From TrEMBL, chains A, B:
Annotated ranges, domain HTH lacI-type: 2-56
InterPro entries linked: HTH_LacI (IPR000843), Lambda_DNA-bd_dom_sf (IPR010982), Peripla_BP/Lac1_sug-bd_dom (IPR001761), Peripla_BP_I (IPR028082)
Molecular function via GO: DNA-binding transcription factor activity; transcription cis-regulatory region binding
Organism of this sequence: Mesobacillus campisalis
Keywords, ordered alphabetically: DNA-binding, Transcription, Transcription regulation
Name the record gives this protein: LacI family transcriptional regulator
Length: 319, 319
């Protein structure tokens, strides 16, 4: 369906002129008004889009499920999705779940109710059994390494990325290594935990539950992490921190407490957000915005596909 | 209209059970299936929501216009809107404009096309003439100090907040004061500029165009600001920085260059984001999330209202 920009292009006038004509605004030259009305005629521009949607079974709306819309990782992913959505005249319906299954189910229900054409789940909570049941109603795209044929996926091999980063710390002389993560469940987190278990057993470092610190999402969580380390009899000398925000919080907190980095504590962040560059934090670069764009294209095109995004370690001053 | 959570509550079963029944999943006890079907019967739960919307003229969708969805200020505002949207069974349609008028007009068009019930414009680009033309199609809520009777507004008195912060810097001995801002146009920015002009003329400090630095939005822009100051023959000794992110970027950059804060450069940020607390940055606290929640309620309730949010200076170590 033509949108206001298409009409402006067809009529050779500005979008605000189209808007004035659509709203029967008096101050429009007869010539321009006629041009716009002809464009509307040509493009069969409708007044009630729900009628259009009902007739053509399309809403031009795409659902996007995120646990937290204000987390830099997800807001950057949304940015990548939003950019392409705009190019393709799609609008995004944002569903913030806080990782609650019922909220994610509401998003899936929107697909079944044809309120959206497709659904991107940036971080999944529902079981694949449930997701699969909804795949028939519209395209579902996940951001995880998942082989289910019912969905398309864009993912990072978190097992390999984590294992490499751990090995890098080991090569730098660390044998007491821990990691900070958002939630401990979830496909990506479980792949990271598997990499950690395989790593410590390969080098006989011993598995220490205390070295895995959960609920690390925001800058301010860095302080919590540092306090936990200080309570440990034998704290880790190095940390993988799955968010640059949290890594930055840890570095800032250590500076205040005169804890030497990397001397007393080595840090590897994830994402390569601007704050990591500014604060000279060694990090694993993840192309979050590009992942968002690819998620959109998979949801838009609809043919099932799997896309692995490449990551790389960026060596800076915190190891 | 009942949603999946309502059905679960009515039937006294879990949301996933409701989902299984809706999808004719085999593994559901006859008893539970009957309970869910009765709930669906009672609540007249429809299969195609577009048909429902067409019949009742409601979409349960609310539009949210933001220039950048990944900016911490707007993503926190979206969080505040999203929280209440969920409580009221509303979904949000996110429209990212990059401050382009045609994109904002598309959002307004969605209102006219009844694709959304109401529209929140977190930062406006279109003229009020245009906004007013669309106010008849649904509630429009703005986040600016605006007396237009066609819309509801939630706002901060940026003139007063800016004037107070400038006075605070003056009382601390600064006479060469500049400020960093996102875009120089826009209601909020113009009110801040007015406060700045009135302030410098009251204290005969002289108006210096170079002291107003635009396009300051993200952490990484802090470096750009510091480089600009270093090029000036007579740089300001104090800056108001309208985003804590940028303020944090400036502080981080100054630490790297051994520029003493507040000795050589005093900084006042805005928002009171967690990073400001962690980095001990003096800032003007703005209740962004609460503003988002109030924007939602105004769009939801629909009766025209004006709500001023209170701000306050938080004294820390950068002045």
């Amino acid at each position: 369906m033509a949108n206001i920009r298409d009409l402006a292009r067809m009529a050779g006038v500005s979008v605000s002129t189209v808007s004035r004509v659509l709203n029967n605004h008096p101050y429009v030259s007869e010539e321009k008004r006629t041009a716009v009305l002809q464009a509307i005629e040509k493009s069969s521009y409708h007044k009630n889009i729900n009628a259009v949607n009902l007739s053509r079974g399309k809403t031009m709306l795409m659902g996007v499920v995120v646990p937290y819309s204000d987390h830099p990782y997800f807001s950057l992913m949304i940015k990548g999705i939003a950019k392409l959505a705009l190019d393709h005249n799609y609008k995004l319906v944002l569903i913030q779940t806080d990782y609650r299954e019922d909220r994610e189910l509401e998003a899936l229900e929107m697909l079944r109710e044809k309120q959206i054409d497709s659904l991107i789940i940036c971080s999944r909570t529902c079981s694949m059994d449930i997701v699969r049941e909804y795949a028939g109603y519209g395209h579902i795209v996940l951001c995880e390494n998942n082989n289910d044929e019912a969905v398309s996926v864009t993912y990072v091999n978190h097992y390999r990325a984590f294992y490499r980063a751990l090995t890098y710390l080991y090569q730098n002389g660390h044998v007491k290594i821990g990691y900070c993560i958002g939630r401990k469940t979830g496909v990506n987190s479980l792949q990271r935990q598997a990499a950690y278990r395989d790593f410590v057993s390969k080098y006989n470092l011993g598995f220490n539950e205390d070295y895995i610190i959960g609920d690390c999402l925001y800058f301010e969580d860095g302080e919590k992490v540092v306090n936990k380390l200080r309570e440990m009899a034998s704290p880790p000398t190095a940390l993988l921190v799955t968010s640059d925000q949290v890594a930055a919080g840890i570095v800032t907190c250590c500076q205040k407490l005169d804890i030497a980095i990397p001397g007393e504590l080595a840090i590897i962040g994830f994402d390569n957000q601007p704050i990591a560059k500014m604060m000279d934090i060694t990090t694993v670069k993840i192309p979050i915005e590009e992942m968002g764009s690819n998620l959109f294209l998979q949801a838009f095109n609809g043919d099932k596909s799997r896309k692995e995004m490449q990551v790389r370690l960026i060596e800076r001053g915190t190891v």
